[in-house]
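Ticket #4471: structure export looks truncated?
Reporter: QA, pipeline team
Priority: medium

Steps to reproduce: submit the single chain below to the structure queue and open the exported record.
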Amino acid sequence: MSGPSEAPAVEASALTHPGRKRTTNQDAVGQKLTDRGGVFVVADGMGGHRTGELASKLAVKNILEVTEEDTPSPTLLLEAFEEANDAIYMAGQRPESRGMGTTATALALDLPYALIAHVGDSRAYLLRDGVLTQLTQDHSWVAERLRQGLLTPTEARNHRWRNVITNALGSFPEARVDLIGLKVQPGDRFLICSDGLSGVLEDAVLQEVLESMPPDAAAERLVKLANEWGGPDNISVVAVVVHRIPEDRAPPPWALPLEGGEPVVLAMGQEDESVHTQVIEPGRPRSFWHRWRDLIFLIVYVALLLFVLLFNNR
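Actual output as written to the record:
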């Protein structure tokens, strides 16, 4: 616990803006600071202005609520994404909400450790010792072609399908989540943002702003720059700086290989840890409803179809 005159361990700022070309904002941001860090979320909704806005807000709400229950851990963070996915998927079963979904990228700091859960093409960056590193990999059609060597970075940035997402919360009954972990150092700066920022500004600009300004000013400056460069999409930013590491840290109740300086992809239940974009399923036992939901829907649908056919043949 910090003394009354001691600076907080973490300073952060969250900001979202509709941009210059959109009349509504389908992005959502959220943060909850704690003595040992906090949880920070960016979500970019899709499926129409009403459903996209609802999806992103549901993601942020559920992730923050679940992670507030206990100390952040890999299981808890995945549980939070699972709850968010369930809420969005169920809301999307209404005919007027078909196609709703959202990206979601969450940073959970329990100093000196950081966990990042990620779905979609919003991003998390780390600025350390003058080097800006993109921690997450985009779940998009263009990004996959880029990783396969089928597109150049310039072609990917300008491709007409660059906004086609291949993974989103709420699109399927089960969440597919990338989970990344690393040990944090004093002076580390994190940036979480939607593609309304990363798709407009170069990495060099992101780095210059992050390392020269405190989080409040950095978030405002990045949004302003994205709008000056056209603001074609909603813009969301969470800027976080770690000032110090609390000294009374007990070993975490979960064992992870995070003592090195490099980020680690945590492959829960998977054998090949060399692949960066691994699919990680939530670890807690599934309820009866979660295990059999789709089968129940199918049985009800078939029963209704047979009823209609038999009724029409009378």
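Status: closed, not a bug. The export was complete when the record was re-opened. Leaving a note from the reviewer for reference: Residues 297 and 303 are 10 Å apart (CA to CA).
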